[in-house]
Amino acid sequence: MYETGSLKIPMNRIAVVIGKNGETKNEIERLGQSVIDIDSKTGLVTVYQKKDALKALIALNVVQAIARGFSPEKALTLFNENMQLIVISLKDFAGNNSNRINELRGRVIGRNGRTRQIIEELTNTYISVSGNTVSIIGDFIGIGYSKEAVEMLLLGRKHKTVYSYLEKSVSEIKFKRMEQTFG
User: Fold this and answer.
1) I need a surface site. Which of 76, 133, 158, 169 has the fewest CB within 10 A?
2) pTM for the structure as a whole
């Protein structure tokens, strides 16, 4: 077995990676054709490939997605060949100013989670705002639009401007997806 990679995850996410009776960890190992070693004292998770190196790398991405706040169900969608994960650091937009980071988090989430929900629905992606990051899971097409919308908010654009951008993009997204499906 070869080590694919390791990452340190928040202590409160270890149980989520493992799952009830080890079910989540077992499913990641099965789909990722890998073995996962979790150090519950340090939060270090190491993924070892058994067969396919690419699948083991995806398994590492699934662990990272769960660590960034996604449910195991949403994280496991990364095993679909069209799906990917991107992580945006709020520190890139706020420096180490914790008040500014909280403000940026709030801008992406919106009142009662409404902004995040609108972006997710219009781009068919999943968004998690956790710690100092905003993470997005989606297909190649939707994730680009979702990332652009999130970055517009982080750069201070008005919510109304971002919603207009997304509404104008919906037909473009659908067209690109149809084009991808039918060539």
Assistant:
1) 158
2) 0.93
Report the pLDDT averaged over residues 86-94: 95
Closest CA relative to residue 92, chosen from 144, 146, 135, 151: 151
pLDDT band at 183 (very low <50, low <70, confident <90, very high): low
Q: Dihedrals φ, ψ of 22, to 5°? A: 75, 10
What strand order describes the sheet that includes 133-139?
83-89, 133-139, 126-130
Q: What is the 3-state secondary structure (H, E, C) of the chain?
A: CEEEEEEECCHHHHHHHHCHHHHHHHHHHHHCCEEEEEECCCCEEEEEECCCHHHHHHHHHHHHHHHCCCCHHHHHHHHCCCEEEEEEECHHHHCCCHHHHHHHHHHHHCHHHHHHHHHHHHHCCEEEEECCEEEEEEEHHHHHHHHHHHHHHHCCCCHHHHHHHHHHHHHHHHHHHHHHHHC
Contact of 88 with 108, CB cutoff 8 Å: no
